[in-house]
Amino acid sequence: MVSKSLFNFLEDLKQNNQKDWFESNKKQFQEEEKALKNFFNSITAGLNEFDEIEKTKIFRIYKDVRFSKDKTPYKTHRGANWMRAGAHRRGSYYLHLEPGNTFLACGFFEPNPQDLLRFRREFEMDDTHIRKIFSHPDFKKEFNGFDKSNQVKTAPKGFDKDHKAIDLIKNKSFYVIHYFSDKEALDADFSKEVIRLFKLTLPFLDYMTEVVTTDLNGVSIL
Fold this sequence. Notes:
Blueprint: H1 4-15, H2 19-24, H3 26-47, E1 53-58, E2 78-84, E3 92-97, E4 102-108, H4 113-125, H5 128-135, H6 137-142, H7 166-169, E5 174-180, H8 182-185, H9 190-200, H10 202-212
Helix pairs in contact: 3-9, 5-10
């Protein structure tokens, strides 16, 4: 499970985001990281019960501040990403742990230009299947369609701003997101809930994979 001590550490780090403080509390950080790695590994095991994971990436707490206006040296959250295995399994799972802002996300974050255009052309041609997935009662209860925080303002070049699927086409990323309260994130069954929600997204991931691995005629490009 995610420990309360981890959240306490992250809250303290937020108030003392400097190298001296971090170094003096590094022993606790290392203990928290060991427990966190075990937690993330349990998520990997759960995912592999219904999907196939190629790689689990636990993001470092150290920030790259070279191109950032915020020069504080450490992230005040912990996160991991799980990449699906093989060209016929696209997309990924992500979990973000942060006091007051814990969430999971699944899908395609900032896809390459070729994949981005393919998704948009698919929704331009036919948006019925993705809307059917999003409207399924179990899915709709936990997710609210694509996250809309990463969109163009009106319409991408070459697309009609009045198209009936413009709400989908405007996206620059294609992922769904679910937020947790701190109480939920610290619950003993949190890992089970994360796995349950990840599993709910499998039809979405599989459909989006089918889109990006076929042409507009539905012919495989693999």
